[in-house]
Design a protein that fits this description.
The protein has 203 residues and is α+β, with helices and mostly antiparallel strands. It has one domain: 3-Layer(aba) Sandwich (NADH Oxidase). 36% of the residues lie in helices and 15% in strands. It has nine helices and four strands. It has a four-stranded antiparallel sheet with strand order 1-2-4-3, with helices on both faces. The longest helix has 18 residues. The termini are far apart. The structure holds flavin mononucleotide. Flavin mononucleotide (FMN) binds next to strand 3.
Length: 203
């Protein structure tokens, strides 16, 4: 067990029982700098690969940078917003999901591309939890910089960056971020998000 593991305090306070892996997944900022085993990294993307997708189009692509490859890691770090870079620099690996916008067969826009890439990254995050790793997704990155840095072709959009790694000591964060790291995870109640018969009518 990782001695820095805050999982017990960050476990979802559920109103109905859910699978342990779902309850335990959370998004830390305090990573340590240990590398992640290459095989484990492959397992994460394998989990992503087996997500469901509209017409089995599999619109997900991933760019990845391991911290052992210092120049590559710095290049991806440079794509992140300053705020995210401050903590994500301690991750073991960084990745950016890229979404394919149209169907191969018809050339028509795939209305569900982002949904399906989200399905894949959700798989990845749950697989990470099962392996004792953590993933923190990031909207805060420069999409155009990622596009040019990696030569992402037309018809594909960089979607979400992510930090992947081992939980580190909370003291690596400044005080404000330490407080955020300790905050309990919160969610809207089911009555605000699941309706029956008519919009707004809670189950
Ligand atoms: C698509 C997406 C983008 C996010 N962008 C950021 C970000 O740029 N910076 C950040 O610190 N957290 C980011 N987060 C993390 C969310 O704030 C976090 O998932 C949310 O507060 C719920 O916390 P939990 O994941 O620990 O349950 C992002 C999460 C997602 C799914």
């Amino acid at each position: 067990m990782n001695p820095h593991d805050l999982d017990r305090s960050k476990r979802a306070a559920v109103d109905h029982p859910i699978h342990d892996l779902l309850a335990r997944r959370w998004s830390p900022r305090a990573f340590d700098e240990r590398p992640v085993d290459r095989e484990l990294l492959h397992q994460l993307f394998e989990a992503a690969r087996w997500a469901a997708s509209s017409f089995n189009e599999q619109p997900w692509r991933f760019l990845v940078a391991e911290r052992q490859a210092e120049a590559e890691f710095s290049r991806m770090l440079e794509c992140l917003s300053e705020g995210n870079r401050a903590w994500a620099r301690r991750a073991s690996a960084l990745a950016i999901s890229v979404s394919k916008l149209a169907f191969d067969r018809t050339g028509k826009p795939n209305r569900h591309h982002a949904h399906d890439v989200g399905m894949a990254t959700a798989n990845l995050a749950i697989q990470a939890t099962a392996l004792g790793l953590h993933v923190h997704m990031m909207a805060g990155f420069d999409v155009e910089k990622a596009r040019t840095t990696y030569g992402v072709p037309e018809g594909f959009d960089p979607l979400t960056a992510m930090a992947i790694g081992h939980l580190g000591p909370i003291e690596v964060l400044d005080e404000r971020k330490q407080a955020r790291e300790r905050e309990p995870r919160t969610r809207l109640p089911l009555t605000e998000v699941v309706f029956r018969e008519r919009w707004g009518n809670p189950i």
